[in-house]
Amino acid sequence: MKFGTKALHAGIEPDPGTGAIMTPIFQTSTYVQNGIGNHKGFEYSRTGNPTRQALEKNIAALENGNYGACFGSGLAAIDCVMKMLNPGDEVISTNDLYGGSYRIFKTIFEKYGIKFHFVDMTKPTRVEAVINENTKLIWIETPTNPMMNIIDIRSVVSLAKNRGILVAVDNTFATPFLQQPLDLGADIVMHSATKYLGGHSDVVMGALVVKDDNLASEIYRIQNSSGAVTGPMDSFLVLRGIKTLHLRMQRHCENGEAIAYFLKGEEKVDKVYWPGFEEHPNHHVAREQMSGFGGMISFTLKGNKVEDAKQLVASTKVFSLAESLGGVESLIGHPATMTHASIPKEEREKAGVVDSLIRLSVGVEDVEDLKLDLEQALNAF
Ligand SMILES: *Cc1c(COP(=O)(O)O)cnc(C)c1O
Prior knowledge:
By secondary structure, the chain is an alpha/beta fold. It has a domain at 245-378: Aspartate Aminotransferase, domain 1. 37% of the residues lie in helices and 15% in strands. It has helices at residues 3-9, 50-62, 74-82, 99-109, 124-130, 153-161, 175-178, 213-226, 232-242, 245-264, 283-289, 306-315, 345-350, 367-378; strands spanning 67-71, 90-94, 115-119, 135-141, 166-170, 188-192, 206-210, 269-273, 296-301, 320-321, 331-333, 358-361. α7 links the parallel β5 (166-170) and β6 (188-192). It is globular, with a radius of gyration of 21 Å. The protein starts with a helix and ends with a helix. The model has no long low-confidence stretch (mean pLDDT 96).
């Protein structure tokens, strides 16, 4: 089955009791048993819920995996992966990482004896340099937030494979429509379904997908034991969101490209970060491992003044000033004072998050309105 067909149909059966074509919201905690142990596959909704299960199967199919598991947030999904590790284990991750991932690694799991190395993963030799016999997991995020760096998944996988190291990819920005990490050799795919999978800024949810039976049983054991599951209503909303994932992503890509080129031509704009540009340092990798470049763009202003950036983000009318991304509506953000405010100035500037950096999540509106909106906002200072 091709992607668009899977998005609508994978894992989804008409309800056998009523024929309802849409997966019902099974708002129930428990399930009646005919006799002890004699049930219909569900005993308790932390362990399994039919609405959640339909979504888990659907997301697994989109990622070309065999098993999916959904959690109460993207971070709860990351928490599950980290709980597969033991004290003394080491993890390698990128130095340009989603802030919440960095926070859970450093402030939660480090204290349980897990060691983290943050390296510039756009250069796989940097990864190789910190691998040792304790390395158990490599955590990739690509494209990265907010600098839109691209990491070569296949190269990192090739370093990990013969050493028994697991590779996990945070596929939130690309979505399975643009990038399928399991097909590139990764072991685990993680999503903040809050973003493009849900797609309508109305749910917080996370997901994991794997191919391997043993990894899956470990994930389900932790999902059930730690209990950070998502609810049936939210599962329904994300199932509904995914039905248009392929349509939305096409439009996000088209609009993203148009806005990236528009910004490049604007006088007050300095650098534009978007992996679709040929001069992007890993454009060739993006071309190889992604089927499109998505709707996320960052840019800086000439003069690099924080006041100009603040004026700009306060002046847009179609782009809303907000955290998060991946919804149908366009959002604008200022990483230095919003998503990356907790990182010391010196460190964030090293990563490129300078005072005038602005991040766009380009939505699916009519692109002419988006351009006009940015144009008037660029004229506001
Ligand atoms: C939002 C996000 C997360 C965290 O997901 P939540 O659903 O907010 O917990 C992780 N990784 C990336 C890339 C994200 O954008």
